[in-house]
Amino acid sequence: MKFSEEIHDELNVLSCFDLGSLQSGIKVHSTANDKEIAATKRLFEKGLVSQVDGGYLTDSGREAAEHLLHLSGLLAATATDT
């Protein structure tokens, strides 16, 4: 399974959230690149973030970001084990 460019961009936006605090959100400004703006909008449409320009993670968004963090850790650990 290969990730589409759109999914890759969405994963990059999700990785910007600080999972250590529920009070920490992000704001994707209109000066950000078009890919980040579009990815953030798609995350909003999917119900993963609270605002079209970022905001806070929803419960589903937090779960997705936690899975992303776990997967990233697994991949990083595997890369150093070889």
Summary keywords:
single chain; mainly alpha; 82 residues; 3 helices
Kindly describe this structure:
With 82 residues, this protein is mainly α. It has one domain. Helices cover 55% and strands 11% of the residues. The protein has a three-stranded antiparallel β-sheet. Helix 1 crosses helix 2. It is globular and about 40 Å long. The two termini are 22 Å apart. The model has no long low-confidence stretch (mean pLDDT 93).
Number of domain units: 1
Residue share in helix = 40-55%
Count of strand segments: 3
Q: How big a fraction of the residues is strand? A: 5-15%
What is the H/E string?
HEHEEH
- Which parts are unreliable, with pLDDT below 50 for 5 consecutive residues or more? none
Report the structural category: mainly alpha
How many angstroms does the end-to-end distance come to? 22 Å
Strand order of the largest sheet: 1-3-2
Per the principal axes of the C-alpha atoms, what is the gross shape?
Answer: globular
Largest beta sheet, briefly? 3 strands, antiparallel
- Radius of gyration of CA atoms, rounded to a whole number: 13 Å
Number of helices: 3
For the residues shown, what is the average pLDDT? 93
Gist?
The chain has 82 residues and is mainly alpha-helical.
List strands and helices in order, with pairings.
Elements: H1 5-14, E1 26-27, H2 34-45, E2 49-51, E3 54-57, H3 59-81
Antiparallel strand pairs: 1-3, 2-3
Helix pairs in contact: 1-2
